[in-house]
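Standup notes, protein team

Yesterday: finished cleaning the Novosphingobium malaysiense set.
Today: propanoyl-CoA C-acyltransferase structure.
Blockers: none.

Input for propanoyl-CoA C-acyltransferase:
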Amino acid sequence: MMSDVYIAGADMIAFGRYPDRAYFQLGAEAALMALDDAGLSIKDMGAVYASSVFNAQSMLGQKMLKEIGQTGVPCINVSNACASGATAVREAFVAIKSGLYDAVIAVGAEQNPRGMLGGAPPFGPPPEGLFGSESMPAVFAEAGMVHAARYGTTVEQFAQVAVKNHHHATMNPKAYYRRETPLEEVLASEIIAEPLTKLMCSANVDGAAAVVLVSERKARELGMGRAVRIRASVLASDPYEPRNPEMFDPNSVTRLAAAQAYEMAGLGPDALDLVELHDCFATAELLHYENLGLCGDGEAGRLIDSGATALGGAIPVNVSGGLLSKGHPIGATGVANIVEIVEHLRGQAGARQVDGARIGLAHVLGFGAAAGVHILEKA
């Protein structure tokens, strides 16, 4: 018999640099924090779902269990680019939904290499060629410029995303960068790929996050006061559509995942109280306003100008600070976005709390392409 799925425990370590610790130690710490939050132990878990990208072939789940307790349960290690964490949660969701387990844990952990990520080995051939560069800043710069050409979106509107998210991060003790960056500073920082400046690019950091998923029976046993129901868990890959194969389209896969998630949840974007989306670059956040249905096509620039996506606005986005300021440890990001939503639905987000939050959406986009969308509801 299929069960509703609930999050009983959720937590993450502060994102930053951990040169003296291994990635699996970071994951183990986050796992213990989430287990404590749920009031459960590793002995209660029927399976472990672990996500990483740069440590993808290193048996992350099993190495974590060597730190916190080996119980003989299945460990499923996943790697799906920036959607890896959402993929682990999706697999955990399916396992509970099917009735196979009453409790499982999903953990994302990463120690990112230093420097610019993506567009070169191990992701593929050297980045130069075809249309200039396949590096991630160039890819999302191009996507932003296409939007600007089509709808008149300005560099200042893209930069306002960084201003907003850096401001939000000042209220998040687990964010890596915690300082204000006025618009003039964002625009004046080093150009990485026109129109993206350094302060409009995500922070390359280490980190780990974890969530404990349980069946409805287990949730009721633990008490529903802090439970968060997963109303939708969707993972999508690119749909077929005629297009230039030399161009990366960050839009269609997110639109597909979002449509499926809204259908599964039985609601639309107007029901959302907050969103954590994949702002790997400032241009990406504006694109995803439209991809997730927060506004119509071509309206993202006006939406950021209106203040609607800032804390206190009609639909706050990335009140954690987002990837731009909280940080982007790739394998952990998808789980961390869900942890942020859980904290708001529980009313535990402190100074950045979205008042009265009952329904939130977490989104990630993995180049390649994969999109994960989770819609969560206060039980």
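Follow-up from PR in the comments: The first strand starts at residue 5 and ends at 12.
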